[in-house]
Fold this sequence. Notes:
This protein is globular. By secondary structure, it is mainly beta. The protein has helices spanning 10-14, 210-215, 281-284; strands at residues 2-4, 16-18, 36-38, 63-65, 78-84, 93-98, 103-107, 117-118, 131-133, 142-144, 146-147, 154-156, 164-170, 173-177, 183-187, 191-194, 273-275. Helix content is 5%, strand content 23%. The protein has a single domain, classed as CATH 2.40.50.140. A hairpin with a 4-residue loop joins β6 (93-98) and β7. The longest helix is centred in the C-terminal third of the chain and has 6 residues, at 210-215.
Amino acid sequence: xxxxxxxxxxxRRDGSVIEYKTKLTSTKNNPRKSLVKGKRSTGGxxxxxxxTTHYRGAGNKRKYREIDFKYDxxxxxxxxxxxxxxxxxxxFIALVCYADGERRYIVATRKMQAGDTFVVSETAKxxxxxxxxxxxxxxxxxxxxxxxxPNAGSRLVRSAGNYAEVIAQDAGFTTLKMPSTEIRKVISxxxxxxxxxxxxxxxxxxxxxxxxxxxxxxxxxxxxxxxxAVDHPHGGGEGRSPRGHRRQRTKQGRPTGKGQKTRSPxxxxxxxxxxxxxxxxxxxxxxx
Length: 288
């Protein structure tokens, strides 16, 4: 459930939070020490110290939970011990214990609870939480944690509330309808988990005030038109000047926003795309 506060102050008036006590096993559980490591904030800088992602920095310190995206422990049943919060991703995570005693973190499915079981196997039933090759998954099933190459680890559909739908099986490829409404083919020997990603209400949360965004590591964004011409393609000019060119651009000069296409026309994976994504309202209202 999303909790709305009483408007006791301007910041409280529009802010909302998820009631974690109704979603998680316990809100006071510390992460398992053997599955946690330190994480340094990059501030959006690369290994050369140059800013490659703008408007990031500071924020609260976080510990990184090591998530199992490869699921390489096959044919060993596992039991969910707890569902926990992870500050590094929008979805919840689950601490699972395999039958041989090993514990790992995985991305939790919707409605996953302590005591639930699942298995990673080619002969597993297509029920929520189980993981099996795409070729063994029936048409119409919702999947997440989808691989692009067999046993290379999950790459697609990992954020809160997302799922892809299996819509066809043909000639060694599985056709998936992605959360972006794009329809693409994935090799059928790649693996995927059954179900939907947890924390589906994440998209309904309103940050509410600037201070909360700063604690999340988000810094203020400056409009391109408010900058100097040397700093941004939209900058410069006297007063409130128009941008001077038809297409909206990023700081690096690449087209962006307003439904403009940014995908490379020669990208290697273009041959796997059956239908391009539908921008704008059609994509935002996919669940309706």
